């Protein structure tokens, strides 16, 4: 792992302004890092439509930024990530976080939780790309 972080937007801003910031920040990160592969979580299930829609919109602008750079993308479900990291599709979030810490030989579990989730996606996407 070279770096990690989260993109933060102002909750007081309009949805369109927040999506624009996400798009611009992701585009900048992709320009700076020039990745060979991008791994993104596949949405397949949601409990709350109110939170699912903004997540789907943010995912959409992320996919647009990735497509504009013509990068290879792997989409993985949370189940696939849990299987890949822990060997068990119903693993708890804390188990996944602990395995990310162990696999990457980190001193502590990455925070916030979104960073640990993204690292788990990256690890699984890397492994999947090596076997395909």
Explain this structure.
- The chain is mainly alpha-helical and 132 residues long.
- It has two domains: 13-75, Nucleotidyltransferase, domain 5; 77-132, no CATH class.
- Helices cover 58% and strands 8% of the residues.
- The chain has helices at residues 15-33, 49-68, 78-86, 93-103, 113-130, and strands spanning 37-41, 72-76.
- A two-stranded parallel ribbon has the order 1-2.
- α2 (49-68) links the parallel β1 and β2 (72-76).
- α1 runs parallel beside α2 (49-68).
- It is globular.
- 18% of the residues are buried.
Q: How many individual domains?
A: 2
Largest sheet: 2 strands, parallel
Second-tier CATH architecture of the largest domain: 2-Layer Sandwich
Task: Tell me how many strands there are.
Answer: 2
Mean pLDDT: 93
Shape: globular
Strands of the biggest beta sheet: in what spatial order?
A: 1-2
Strand content: 5-15%
Quaternary state of the chains: single chain
N- to C-terminal distance: 22 Å
Number of helices, counting only DSSP H or I runs of 4 residues or more: 5
Tell me the series of helices and strands, N- to C-terminal.
Answer: HEHEHHH
Q: What value does the Rg take, in angstroms?
A: 15 Å
Quick structural overview:
This protein is mostly helical and 132 residues long.
Which characteristics define this entry?
globular; 2 domains; 58% helix; two-stranded parallel sheet; 132 residues; mainly alpha
